[in-house]
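dumping this here before i forget
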Amino acid sequence: MSDHLEPVDRLSALLERFRVRAHLFHAGPLCGVTHYAARPGLGFLHVMRRGDMAVTHGLVPGAPPRIEVREPSVLFYPRPLAHAFHNAPEEDSDFTCATLAFDGGENHPLARALPPVVVLPIAQLEGIEHTLALLFAETERVRCGQRLLADRLFEVLLLQLLRWLLDHPAEGAVPLGLLAGLAHPALARTLVAVHERPGGAWSLEAMARCAGLSRSVFAASFKAHVGETPADYLAHWRLSIAQAELRRGIAVKQLAGDLGYASAAALSRVFTQKVGVSPRAWLQQQP
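structure:
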């Protein structure tokens, strides 16, 4: 691998294809115990501005039953997960909270790749001070366009948080998967190229060449960081796009060529093999 790889934009192609939309729903103190239910397709982004509290999750696989938050922090839930904040009124905890609607819900590539909850002290997150200052200013008093601007600022905050996780995968406890792959300088080049050109002729050799690695080193590194083979990742990425486009009413026949398949039948075969049902049957199951 070259020691002088040019940096690449690891998030734009991904988030342009699969968007995340924030919606402010609370600004101010919270007293006693506040429960947040798991809602299909929605995550949460909470900013605790001051105070301290405990957070409980119940017995949920992969999520800590209880977290003690002792300093101003950001709490990020990429997938639906019921949680409760426990804080006494005299502690003067102050919160700004938003829901996050991920395109594709739990199947959003980033939502799948993240831990159930990420808790990071604000002091640790370099560069977010200006975003938080603007966000707090917008939520302290009603002004024209306040909610729209607050929603956009939460989306900026999410991007900055994802950036930090890419730059600090160990500190953010990033598991095997897409985010771990994007945190690897060589693998990121291939992943970004695949995200930008899903219909390309992506042989193992082409992907390895994009990363600047030999085929054997690339294949082993990819499996070690992303948790699946390059061919499986490519198929899953293409099928995630196919599912999103099918929801929008695009026909399989139109999608096949754009996604690198020789025919609609070829795309349908791979879809059925990986998803378990045909594109038509899958679409009928969607709400």
